[in-house]
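User: Sequence in, structure out. Go.
Assistant: Echoing your sequence, followed by the structure tokens.
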Amino acid sequence: MKIERLIAAVAFVAALAVSPALAQTRPAAATPQTGAALPESKIALIYSDAFLDPKTGIARFNTALSTLNREFQPRQTELQQLQQKIQQLNDEVEKTKGVAEPRALQTKVDQLEQWNKDLKRKGEDAQSAYTKRRGEIFAPLEDDIKKNLEAFAKQRGINVIIDGSQVPVVYAADSIDVTRAFINDFNSKNPATASITPPK
């Protein structure tokens, strides 16, 4: 009997606590102002990865990349030749370990260590120079692309362009993808033969 009274008392207190909340009226939803019309927005999607395609991408990218690789081909060849010399000397040391005179063997091991140091240093220098030169070559091209993309968007009344290569896109209709149209527009206005500043 006491349990029944306790349950009834709890139910009564709960009903008293909830009743003021139920008695309140909901505030009216704010009505939008009718005087100011929202501007129409046009969003487009572009895939910047397509700019790099050797056949269908931006032609100046390929020209710039070819120029960069051509400039660094001598260093690449030098590093490959040094790597081959190291491999040959290493093979020779391994073959003659048991039969060669210790002093002659040590001379070859010392030479091997020196060549490995040279290879590492020259490789780091080449990588650093390549990165710097790449920035010098591609920075003006990237600026041109940004300017052209902005002009392209303004011509077509596009308010926002989202790069689908940088941001995951769950769904986008094909009609808002302007990648091919932009690449064609850019290539027509910026021929691949545009000059590249020589190295300093």
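User: And one key feature?
Assistant: The chain is about 60% helix and 5% strand.
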